[in-house]
Write a structure and sequence with these properties.
Blueprint: H1 19-36, E1 42-48, H2 52-61, E2 66-77, E3 82-90, E4 100-108, H3 112-122, E5 128-137, E6 149-154, E7 158-160, E8 177-179
Parallel strand pairs: 1-2, 1-4, 4-5, 5-6
Antiparallel strand pairs: 2-3, 7-8
Bound molecules: inosinic acid and magnesium ion.
């Protein structure tokens, strides 16, 4: 059912990042990850829901043994802007103590979501903690949270597709598109 009063959303006709570009970038990233984690087991922590497709592709691309767990965070704010107030909606099920943790995020924008997740995870004493994001939006960063692996960087604009949503819609698109009227 469509909501009668929902604004009509206009997406770019051309993808910002095509499926082929995403797949190629994941190959490169996973080669780097394999090099860095040689001889170890990775515990990937996917931040739901936005990273579900990215982590599914990434975990299959890396050759290093990997296990996975999920965390769901809610950040208060508008549909397009983070407030920095984070609530853990679904916590991890696994212990991360002494594990080599790789957080897999969809987008780092202000960095507030990741900053608060990072300190929560560090309190649980992992052997190491690195962060991988599909999209890095440097221009809006208000924290100096370290990001170790970056899929793509972009400046401005709101994007959807390949797991990324606008009010829960468009996660199912196979590529990434810009919302032209937000
Ligand atoms: P931050 O706390 O400002 O870094 O917000 C990061 C979160 O905001 C991401 O994990 C996304 O869920 C969401 N977000 C930020 N920019 C976009 C976008 O362009 N499209 C979809 N979600 C976004
Ligand atoms: Mg998110």
């Amino acid at each position: 059912m469509t909501t009668s009063n929902a604004p009509s959303i206009k997406l770019s006709t051309k993808p910002l990042f095509s499926s082929d570009e995403i797949a190629a970038r994941i190959e490169t990233l996973s080669a780097q990850i394999d090099k860095d984690y040689r001889g170890r087991e990775i515990l990937m922590i996917a931040v739901l829901k936005g990273s579900f497709l990215f982590v599914a592709d990434l975990i299959r691309a890396v050759k290093t043994p990997a296990v996975i767990d999920f965390v769901r965070l809610a950040s208060y704010g508008s549909a397009t802007q983070s407030s920095g107030i984070i609530e853990v909606r679904k916590d991890l099920e696994m212990s991360i103590k002494d594990k080599h943790v790789l957080v897999v995020e969809d987008i780092v924008d202000s960095g507030l979501t990741l900053e608060s997740l990072r300190s929560m995870l560090l309190n649980r004493q992992p052997a190491s903690l690195k962060i991988c994001t599909l999209i890095d939006k440097q221009a809006h960063r208000v924290t100096d949270v370290p990001v170790d692996y970056i899929g793509f960087s972009m400046d401005d604009g709101f994007i959807v597709g390949y797991g990324l949503d606008l009010d829960e819609r468009y996660r199912d698109l196979p590529d990434i598109r810009v919302v032209e009227n937000v």
